[in-house]
Amino acid sequence: MAAAAAAEWRTVRKRRGRHPRPAGRGAAPEAPEPSGDGGAVRRRVSEAREDLLISDLWHLTEGIIQKCLTKPLEQLQGVMVPISEALEHLQLEPSQPPAETPSSSLREDSVKRTSHFKCVCYGIGKFASCVIARNQLAFLLLFLEKLQIPRNHCYVFDPLFNELEISVLNTLGLTVLNENEEGKRSIYGEATIFYMIHCGTALYNNLLWSNWSVDSLSKMMIIGNSFKGIEGKLLARILLKDYSYVAKILKGIEEIEFPQTLPYMDIFNDTAIHWFPLQKLKELPSEIWTIREEPEYSEGEELEIIRNQRKLVQPFLGH
Fold this sequence. Notes:
This protein is of the alpha/beta class and about 325 residues long. It is about 40% helix and about 10% strand.
């Protein structure tokens, strides 16, 4: 599967941020490719998760998560509720080490206590050999636990995954996608969090296009490159020409940047949690919602994403 996926995609993402990464995603040279030891990879992911759990980064980010999720939850419920009640409904609990083989009753209890959200993850990279990618995966697992989102409700894809990594992700309980969506996934009315650390601007632009309505955007959150940062790096005319949906939504978005703490500076630099307040979306000019042309990019553009060479298909619907 991995070989077919690699053949289907081309070019590589470039990473933009305050701390540019050298080739290979990580600040340090990558280790050789693992040769089939899924248990060893899972142990490394588990160790990264344990380190994150006691880190200043996670401690600070937990508070940001609670703050960011309060307003979207109110929008989903259609009523304004006190913060304490909203957080209670979300049932945000301290993250705990996951049991190796949870019983069916515990699994059912976890599903009953889950929040309304689903999750989609693009672009984590080769976590079996890259410490940066591995930490991003470990953070994702903590995030799912924090929100009580079942792992099988998190859809993951990166064309760089090899067969070993796909096997590890399946063992962890995540749902691995087998289609290059290029970010063109509609949420179809389901509240969804997109986890897209250091992805290309075209990927965010495609995602916005696929959900270009007040109703859909108000049910979405994006954890990824700071949109304020994107605005600051590109000339206004270039942003509007090449990434028009990103440009048009800037006044309808709120974001909070991730804290920058050692030793995670290169892992989550230029990263923010974004959400789309319903009131802000309604205040945008009505005409911006009437134009929904699919984004097109010239072959010469540095899109920072890996393109799907197959014929365009409908967005993957999930399970």
